[in-house]
Sequence to fold (146 residues):
Amino acid sequence: MKTYSQKASEVSRQWYVIDANGHHVGRLATQIATLLRGKHKPTFSPNIDGGDFVVIINAEKILLKGKKQDQKMYYRHSNYPGGFKAVPYRRMLATHPERVLRFAVKGMLPKTRLGRQQLTKLRIYAGSSHPHTAQQPAVFAPAVRG
Fold:
């Protein structure tokens, strides 16, 4: 019996739309990462990008558990002396709500070229509308809700 390995030419991608309203960041990000990697498919191969496209709407209505809304920080450095920046979660959610979910999903994908390629299939929008209606995305209902 031979082990099946998916080829890049055999990949079939689907579009999913997820409403982030009332969902917690980490719980939703794990399910998004699973869809992007293709781990929900029986033809999953860890070395092939066999995942689906994911469109997230209502990213500004996402939740955090406990005191994380006041304590969570996002850090970056410009590689110049004194270039360290720390942005609190509340300010990040107010100014760039799509980045909150993107950073959470990015941390759950592989840290390789394949992971960067899989992250390009993620589209996040702060509001309830998106420009991907031509792709006819299926509504994906995550199992865990706030």
The two ends are 44 Å apart (CA to CA). The chain has a mean pLDDT of 94. The first helix runs from residue 25 to 37.
